[in-house]
Structures are given as structure tokens and as C-alpha cells.
What does this fold into?
Amino acid sequence: MQIKGKVFLVSGGASGLGAACVERFYEQGASVVLIDKNKEVGEALAKKLGGATRFVAADVSQEKDVQTAIDVAWNDFGNLHGAVCCAGVGTPCRIVDKTNTAHPLDLFSKIIQVNLVGTFNVIRLVASSIIKRGTEAGKERAVIISTASVAAFEGQIGQAAYSASKGGIVAMTLPIARELARFGIRVLTIAPGIFDTPMLAGLSEEVRASLGQQVPFPPRLGRPVEYAQLAQSIIENEMLNGEVIRIDGAIRMAAK
It folds into this structure.
């Protein structure tokens, strides 16, 4: 599938990996509906890019919010050719901390709700909206890309909830791809390593540089544009389906 002339929904599209996808797809001639909880930043990005973009303030775990964004795609651009799910949270927390306080259950639930349930919510509603409008046998109709993490495979201490949420995304990729294959919808997941996103914004430059040096090559933090470049490659390569692709510079995370 070529990106030019197509319509995509990007969750978490106001910043980081999502914003990089929005900008790259727009530059390649696509129309984009970006959804995010950060209304101010999302509106600013849509305004900067212009008429081929729309912003919808949305919580990805809420059916009504996501459906509203999907309706905007169909009503304003007349089609929908896929989605990239980048919305996520990742508050670190140990199962039992130094004061012998247990991991808050509500924090675990929140991370699962946003990362895993939110991703599933986007996938199911996007797929349903496309299937309702009919498919042609043997023809590619859409591509849906989720975002996991290397933490799905090598979760560090304090990442139990985050790893569980991302591991769930990895585990559901293949069965969803198999189910939606007959409708011409491809489903894949990208698992980034350590990327320079808002999740790392609170760290000092020294700590960020140290994290980058842990990557075998290139020894630096990943750039959101590199994630967006991979997303574009996935969309354009019809044989890619049902796979989880790591983009991590060959890093394998240590325990801490």
C-alpha cells in the first residue's frame, strides 16, 4: 500500500512516536486524523500541518472517543486505510518498594487500560469501520500497526505493569492478523528500544546519554522519525503481516 492519497488514524499523535508518524505520513501525501489527550499540543500540530489533518481529543480506552475520531476520518476524508497505535504510559513501580509497600493495584490497572485495552479498542473499532464498508476478495484494504516495547521481552525491575501491557500487545498481534486477513487488513507491531520520547523528557541529559550508550549500535537513543520510517516501510510492504518487529539497535535490556 502506498501512503500517498490514503487516510490514517494515529493515536498518541500529538507527540513522540505518534507525532513523527503524523508528520511523515502527511509529508508523503496522506490525510491523518490524530488523537491524543493533550488537546493543546494536538491542535497545534494539526494547525501547523494544515488541511489534510484533523485532531480529536480522545482517551484511547474509551469507545465513544475513538469512534468519534474514526467518524471524522470517514466524514472528512471519505475513507480509512489503517491506524498506528502509539498512545501509552509507563510509570515505573516495584512490586514491593523499600518500605515494604505493595505496588498500587490502580496503577497496574491504569497502565493495562491505556496501553493494552486502548490499543485493542483502536484496532477493533478501526477494523469494524472498514469491514462494514465492504471488501474486495484478495485486495489489500488496510494496515494496522501497534506499538509494543523491548520491555515485552526483557522487562526491567519496576516494569512489571508496563511489560505486561506490552507483552499483551505482542501476544495478540498474530491472532488478530490471522482473523482480519480475509478482509485484506494487515496487522503488525513495532517494538521500540530506548527512544527519545516524552517518557524520557524528565531525565537529565547525562542520564539520557548514558541510556543511549547502552545500545550496541548506533550508541544513542532512537529517534521518533526512525520509528515513523519503519511504520511507512511496513505499510508499503504487502508481505509483512502478523509480525512483531524490534527497532532497538540490538539492545537486550539488563535487569536494571
Summary: The chain has a mean pLDDT of 94.
